[in-house]
Amino acid sequence: MEKNSSPTREGPLAGLRIVEFAGLGPGPFACMLLSDMGAEVVRIDRPDAPPVSPLDIVGRGRRTILLDLKRPEAVEQVLQLLEKADALVEGFRPGVMERLGLGPKLVAQRNPRLVYGRMTGWGQDGPLAQVAGHDINYIAVTGALATIGEADRGPVPPLNLVGDYGGGSLYLVTGLLAALLHARATGEGQVVDAAICDGVLSMLNNNLSHRLRDLYRDQRYSNMLDGGAPYYTTYETADKRHVAVGPIEPQFFALLCQQLDLPDTLRDAQKDRARWHLLRDAIAAAFRQRTLAEWCLRIEGSDSCFAPVLTLEEAQQHPHIQSRKSFTSVDGVTHIAPAPRFSRTPGRIQCSAGVPPVDVASVLASWLKDSPNQQ
Fold first, then answer.
1. Cα–Cα distance between 237 and 244 in angstroms, integer?
2. What is the pTM of this model?
């Protein structure tokens, strides 16, 4: 069992300093990723904020400072931190940071190298910029939500993976790192406007390409990657569990047909939409003949692109997940291990989420002691 509370930073971003303004959703997750890769993230939160629970996995890896940003002296303390920081992450509605006296122009006067990360759903401008919203709204407007679900039922929200984390956090991290490289080379910081709607649209480029090439039907559950193709979907087993299959390549599809003992008359039906319903019925009937465990013993590990549909708890026990050490324990709490993995500078969970708050003076003292990473 790992005990991890050391302030020593490890990972490819060691030496990078980020000031995070507490929020919800994609901003905190992005800062968790940056911390896992070695960045020192200091979070600014309200004085009346509840203590961060050790069970708040996304809150791991950073120290917290409690400040009332409505007080000028608190704002000045934040500016002193930002003078020594490399980047800032905030997720307020456009204009809030400016009203607090912490907008990009004012901050740039104190630290022209600072990269200013702004995480929102709608972006910094546009008709909806000031409107409240959540993941489901952003993926709905961009067209992503309309593609997910069964044909004869309403769209199904894919948790908050596509909007908050995919189009939000990951694009924010990418933008921050790109801007930090530019700042290191030129000494010039900039604003990174990371909008979830922009990121989700960016992820739909492949979908747009398929449309332009007339390879996509504008109806849920009727295309290759949305469950419509009988060779790229899920099926129920004898014990009411589910398996996932995705043999797109002809040789892998042929192997699955062999393993399921499908009729010879359907083994050439992979690309024949007119026979997709027959192929789906045959595959479904085959999978209903055995339990999930029996299918895993029979097929898993072959090139038929097969996997059991597991719960998160079950995933922890899967041999491949265990061999990759994809789960770890920090102070007795189960965490998912940092990703991606680095050969020379492996990341780590810097500390649990339950670290008591600290003050600005102690953070500044440690930053001065450790020789700030400034150009």
1. 11
2. 0.94
